[in-house]
Structure formats: C-alpha cells, structure tokens
Amino acid sequence: MNHSDIEWSLQGSAIRAGLNIVKGLSADAIDAIIEQRRKAKFKDIDDLRRRVRFRRPDLQNLIHVGACDGLGPTRPAMLNGLRFALPQEAQPMLFDIYGSRAIESLPDYDRVAKLAAELDVTGVPFTMHPAVLLPTRHMMGGSVKAEGLGDGSIASGQHHRQAALDAATRSIRYVTATRLHEFCGRKATVAGFVAAARRARTGDNRVMGFVTVEDATGLAEVSFFPDQIALYRTICSYGGPVWVTGKVTEHLSSISLDACNCGRLA
User: Fold this and answer.
1) How do the domains of the chain map onto residue ranges?
2) Predicted local distance difference test score (pLDDT) of residue 157
3) Contacts of 106 (CB under 8 A, 6+ apart)
4) What residues pair up with 258 in beta bridges, in sequence order?
5) Are 68 and 121 spatial neighbours (Cβ–Cβ below 8 Å)?
6) Residue 199 forms beta bridges with which residues?
7) Is the dihedral of CA 43, 111, 141, 259 positive or negative?
8) Closest Cα partner for 43 from 71, 4, 73?
9) Are 215 and 128 spatial neighbours (Cβ–Cβ below 8 Å)?
10) Distance of CA 257 to CAs 119, 121, 184, 219, Å?
11) Are 168 and 144 in contact (CB under 8 A)?
12) What is the pLDDT along the chain (266 residues), one digit of tens a residue?
C-alpha cells in the first residue's frame, strides 16, 4: 500500500505489482491512495481508512490480497476490524472498545490461503508457484485418451470404455521438468499449467502441435504429432492444471515429451 504504483513498476531489482490489478478497485480510489501517500505514508489500517474513502469491497480485496500487510496485525484481524466504526483520531473514549479491537489477534493466512487470495483478487500468484500444490500422486478423473487404445479415440463397447476409464484413473507419479532428461527413451508424465501453445505443419502438410507445460521447477516442452492432434486441441481447452504422458526424446540437445495421453487435474 505504501509502495505500489498505479501499474507494474521496477523498484531496484524487484518488479512490484500495480494497484490497477486489484479486482474492482476504482480509478478514483487508486488516485486517492497515490495522492495521500505523497503527503505521508500510511501508518496503519485506520490511518488508511481515514484518509482514503473506499467502497467496502475494495478495501476488503486490498486486505485480502495482502496490499495492506504491515498496516495491521494479520489479514483476518484487519478484515474483522472493518465491522467497527472508525474512531476519530485522538477522540477520548469512555470505554476502550477500539483499543480492544486493534490488539485483537487472529491467525494469519497460511501460504495456500494467500495464494488463493492472490489468484482470486488479481489472477497473479505472488506467494508461490501454483504447481507447488500439485500432488506427487493424483487419482485422475475422466478420460481423454487412454493408453493402449491406439488411435486416441474412445472405442465403442463396454470393454474398451472400461479400459479407458481404468487407464485414466490409475495413480501416476509425475516427473518434474528439471528431471525430465533422466527419463530419456522412457515414458514419463509431467504435470503443471499450459504456458504456451502453437501449431505447425509437417512436410506432408499435416498439423501438429507444441505445448509448454510449466511446473514449479521449470518448463517441459511437449510435442503432439499429427495422429495426436486431438489431444493437443483438448489440452489447450483446459483452464487449470493438466497432466501429459509420453515418451521422452532428445533432439539436438533439446529434451521434449512426445505426447500419447493427457488430461485435466481436478
């Protein structure tokens, strides 16, 4: 709150997020924050409330995402304090109800709650990479293409449908992007978020796809050859974490995964 500009800015060797990425925060509120901060930094959450007129949801979002960290004891305590009327500065009180409120101690968010707040309010993770939360083992629901079905389509008949379900729901250990080279020539599964995707045409004019999957350790390059282009379209339609299984190959010192199966992580 005492440091962010309107937009993203470079401060020393750090990149600081701008106030304009906070969901719902009006331009008038941002201008008021900047103007008041030029006069003096905000001392605490009550000082901020006195000097800037907020809509309640705007201030809740600022506290929730961590923009007010350092202006009060914890985020839950500051959010709880919004239930109370703001006392006038230096106003004599018969009963110290505001003092009691100010020292109220509520446990702060843990790292997962902070990450959830960041994604909810700004869409940008600051606390940690979301892929850190992906389990090393995960029971996968649903199916896109199950290993052993050959052509990538769900074949008709009860036997093939059950085989697809069994293959898509068994537990698989994921390999981190930085360790993918250790599995060269073998089948492996990576999990993370789609960071980039593009299509290209082969020499015989068929379409193939390339996807970059990002996990907490780095980037894994995944190739979808023409016979797996349906999987490419499917994985590009997902909005959350995904998994991809394939054979790890090396070409010109570059490691990639030739996809044969993929799906969404719940």
Assistant:
1) 9-128, 137-264
2) 47
3) 73, 74, 76, 77, 80
4) 223, 247
5) no
6) 209
7) positive
8) 71
9) no
10) 29, 34, 9, 11
11) yes
12) 999 999 999 888 888 999 999 999 999 999 999 999 999 999 999 999 999 999 999 999 999 999 999 999 999 999 999 988 887 665 555 444 444 454 467 899 998 899 889 989 998 888 888 877 766 544 333 333 333 333 444 344 445 544 543 444 345 678 999 999 999 999 999 999 999 999 999 999 999 999 999 998 999 999 999 999 999 999 999 878 899 999 999 988 899 999 999 998 86
Which amino acid, one-letter code, is at 197? A
Which two three-digit tokens encode residue 76?
């839950």
Q: At a CB cut-off of 8 Å and minimum separation 6, what does 234 contact?
A: 144, 262
Distance CA 159, CA 144 (A): 16
Total-model pTM: 0.62
Cross-strand partners of 173: 137
**Secondary-structure percent of the chain, ordered helix, strand, coil, rounded to 5:** 35, 25, 40
Q: For residues 243 and 138, what is the distance between their CA atoms, to the nearest angstrom?
A: 10
**Burial category of 156 from C-beta neighbours within 10 Å (exposed 0-12, middle 13-18, buried 19 and up):** exposed
Instruction: Kindly report the CATH number that applies to the domain delimited by 137-264.
Output: 2.40.50.140
CA distance 112 to 89: 36
